[in-house]
Automatic annotation (TrEMBL):
The keyword Transferase does not apply. The keyword Transcription regulation does not apply. It comes from the Bacteria. This is Bleomycin resistance protein. It comes from Leptospira saintgironsiae. One of its GO terms (biological process) is response to antibiotic. InterPro entries: Bleomycin-R, Glyas_Bleomycin-R_OHBP_Dase, Glyas_Fos-R_dOase_dom, VOC_core. Keywords: Antibiotic resistance. Residues 5-115 form the VOC domain. PROSITE patterns: VOC. Pfam families: Glyoxalase (PF00903).
Length: 116
């Protein structure tokens, strides 16, 4: 018997409007759309996968998030400046990460971080 091996963990975020989200994730954040289904969008960015699924409850995206570890966070911060969360800025956190946050149109929080 072969030992099990974890291949990846894929965040799946809820969104209220799939076409609007598709436009935001491709045009603003630069994700590549790889597959589109009636209630699911599959994106890739720098070899990493992210799924968006359609939901009807606006409260769900407002409390959803994912953490994205990057290298050269200053470049990502400059690239995503137009989408930075209203209360967010690039700052060093006490837990040893340099972070900023992006909010998508449905208020999902994308937390970008790099070890200090």
């Amino acid at each position: 018997m072969t030992d099990p091996k974890l291949l990846s963990i894929v965040p799946q975020l809820p969104v209220l409007d799939l076409p609007r989200s598709k436009k935001f994730y491709t045009e603003v954040l630069g994700f590549e759309l790889r597959a589109e289904y009636s209630n699911l969008l599959i994106f890739f960015l720098d070899g990493q996968e992210l799924h968006l699924w359609g939901c009807d409850d606006p409260k769900i995206p407002e409390v959803s998030s994912c953490y994205i570890r990057v290298q050269n966070i200053d470049s990502y911060f400059a690239k995503y400046k137009s989408a930075i969360h209203p209360k967010g800025t690039l700052e060093d956190k006490p837990w040893g990460m340099r972070e900023f946050y992006v909010s998508d149109p449905d208020k999902n929080l994308l937390k970008f971080g790099e070890p200090i």
